[in-house]
């Protein structure tokens, strides 16, 4: 009986030892897995922190770039406004010059119209004078013709 009781006890102890060893091994593996997962979480946390830092850096760069672009656009708008103002001033000067030229042309046209009327009047005067001289010549010729006729009637030469 002693052998059976030793064997019975061994039969109870061996599974308990096996269960204890298996439990310890399982707990050890769980602890290793927890440590690995904790390490992975720390690494992920560090990576997330680095990613946020990178995002903040990129955001700062983008904000700086946008600020520079906005300043460039504001300068471009000011330049365009300046050019627009200069163009308006030049346009006003050109319109004033055109108005002056139109006034000069209008005066010249009126002067030419007046001169045309004077020339027409002078031409008419010349025509009247020419007519007068022709009539005068014709009358003088008639005088000579009458004198000649009178001489012939008087028995002249």
Instruction: Output mean pLDDT.
Output: 85
What is the number of helical segments per DSSP (H or I, 4+ residues)?
Answer: 1
Structural shape: rod-shaped
Structural class of the helices, strands and pairings? mainly alpha
Q: Gap between N and C termini, in Å?
A: 216 Å
Helix fraction?
Answer: over 70%
The biggest sheet, with number of strands, parallel, antiparallel or mixed sense and barrel status, is: none
Radius of gyration: 65 Å
- List segments where confidence is low: pLDDT < 50 over at least 5 consecutive residues: none
What proportion of the residues form beta strands (DSSP E)? under 5%
Report the order of strands and helices: H
How many individual β-strands?
0
Structure explained in plain terms:
With 157 residues, this protein is mostly helical. The chain is 97% helix and 0% strand. The longest helix is centred in the middle third of the chain and has 153 residues, at 2-154.
Structure summary:
With 157 residues, this protein is an all-alpha fold.
Topology of helices and strands:
Elements (H helix, E strand, L loop, with lengths): L1 H153 L3
Features:
mainly alpha, single chain
